[in-house]
Amino acid sequence: EVQVVESGGGLVQPGGSLRLSCAASGFTFSTYWMTWVRQAPGKGLEWVANIKGDGSEIYYMDSVKGRFTVSRDNAKNSLYLQMNSLRAEDTAVYYCARAWALDFWGQGTLVTVSS
Amino acid sequence: QSVLTQPPSLSAAAGQKVTISCSGRTSNIGNNHLSWYQQVPGRAPKLLIYENNKRPSGIPDRFSGSKSGTSATLGITGLQTGDEADYYCGAWDSSLSAGVFGGGTKLTVL
């Protein structure tokens, strides 16, 4: 059974940092693109970043470039999102999803940026 | 302001058919595959349609997708109360080198 499980969310002050993790199981992790998508409270979906199976290609949405870094450890079947210089507008549930079509999603982890 | 444009809300009676539109540009819908997602409040999104018109295993054939030029449509027939949800379209945007979503359509089944 395909599963992706996010963790690492929490409350952080503006300007702070947080590292999200996504543990994958039930598929050959290293062969799939993986994507981070976020959803602010009461708002729609927002694509954040993705990374190719071997890590050789990475793309980011404009507003997180230079602040967020996506990475993966294929030996651990894990995806990461390092978030620095966090802003109030980064407050959202962060989901990891598999592949270009986003065919499997985790339950999400809530990141709250507030003083 | 979302890159892809969807109607904010739609309603239809149980048993009827509804279509949800998604419009964009050549750089996204025009040149790339489109997907549709269903999100029940409080839950994670679920893939309904990928590559414009393909259904993943387990998605009933009441759900269908089509694409023409820079627009796409999700069709749902035989509406059920369980279909009440938010629906999002999504695609890759070659100009932005990023994924993009529509703003979402809230479907109410009367």
Task: Walk me through the structure.
The complex is a heterodimer of chains A (115) and B (110). Chain A is mainly β and 115 residues long. Chain A has strands at residues 3-7, 10-12, 18-25, 34-39, 45-51, 58-60, 68-73, 78-83, 92-98, 109-113. In chain A, strands 2-10-9-4-5-6 form a six-stranded mixed beta sheet, with no helix packed on it. A four-stranded antiparallel beta sheet of chain A has the order 1-3-8-7, with no helix packed on it. The N and C termini of chain A lie far apart (40 Å). The radius of gyration of chain B is 13 Å and the shape is globular. Chain B is 5% helix and 45% strand. By secondary structure, chain B is mainly beta. In chain B, strands 1, 3, 4, 7, 8 and 9 form a six-stranded mixed beta sheet that branches. A three-stranded antiparallel beta sheet of chain B has the order 2-6-5, with no helix packed on it. In chain B, a hairpin with a 4-residue loop joins strand 7 (85-93) and strand 8. Chain B has one helix at residues 26-30, and strands at residues 9-12, 18-23, 34-39, 46-49, 63-68, 71-76, 85-93, 98-101, 105-109. At the A-B interface, strand 5 of A face strand 3, strand 7 and strand 8 of B.
Poorly predicted tracts of residues of chain B: none
* Strand segment count of chain B: 9
Rg of chain A (C-alpha, Å): 13 Å
Number of helix segments of chain A?
0
What is the beta-strand fraction of chain B? over 45%
The spatial strand order of the largest sheet of chain A comes to 2-10-9-4-5-6
